[in-house]
Amino acid sequence: MTHTLPLPDFSHERVEVITGPRSGLFIAVALHSSVLGSALGGARLWSYPHWSDALGDALRLSAAMTLKNAAAGLDAGGGKSVIGLPPRTVLDADRRRAAFLDLGDAVELLGGAYRTAEDVGSTTADMLTVSERTAHVVGLPQATGGSGEPAGPTSLGVHASLQAVLSKLTGSPSAAGRRVTISGLGQVGGRLASRLAEEGAVLTVTDINPARRSFAADLGATWAEPGTEHLVPGDVFVPAGIGGILTDEVIDALAVRAVCGPANNPLASHSGAQRLADRGILYAPDFVVNAGGVIYLDLEAKRLGSSEEIMARVAGIGDTVSRILDDAEVRGITPLAAAEELAASRLREGAPV
Fold this sequence. Notes:
Strand order of the largest sheet: 9-8-7-10-11-12
Number of strands: 12
Shape: globular
Number of helices: 13
Oligomer: single chain
């Protein structure tokens, strides 16, 4: 999914790479940091040109999870797991089950230093399979007593972030009449699109799956052909699909006032944050914006608050985004730099004794 992105500096505590004995698939479990506690990050099932691309994704995403969990104020480290599919591979039910049993064994190798959950390409049902091999998994189906999938909380956090961005741009958090382009109509992007449509936003949407055109039509949204959505004039561009979408070329062609979305690692290069700033485009850092799901999963797993209290914590992401944007403005730095400093300060403090 993000194989075109550069690799991060290797500062990981531990990385396990196996060939699944049941599935024959490449599986990587990357523990980036446990400074703040047992790491938490989802299990991604995706197709990659080469196994090294899948490993690179695990390394990048696990490092991003350290920033995400730290900036969110969680006592949780950063990690990620990836099941890499060769190109054009389609899993039948038996091989899919085998893959997630293999993943469970790989997670168990870390002895609880890393907890997995659903992510792109995986489901709560897959996590139930993982739980047959390890207890270090969260987000099991609600029917089995688990917390369920986190797309709803993630979408709530993105919406709160978008309100913070609109407030910064216009003085009002209201989306009514605002032109918003959403690139990616998966579980999070689709939920966000539905909510914004109800609020009266003027939506342009796209997805690599052409079947989502009917969903767009139901919302009354304008459909853009994939790869052209960044050219649509508007107020906010919402990357909600693949990582690395914000290349230098795309940034230079963006016709919006702000970027705020749930896609992991949307910047093709770290310097993209400054490039956006130089164009006067406000950027809400992805690892802050999309933290709602991990906040929900971590607090639910640890039984830290009622459902209402946990969802209020998720909605508080908007306040965090506002503080980051204000800090960046006062100090003359990018919002990405301000968010990274917020995470770094928590990592320096370490986990509570």
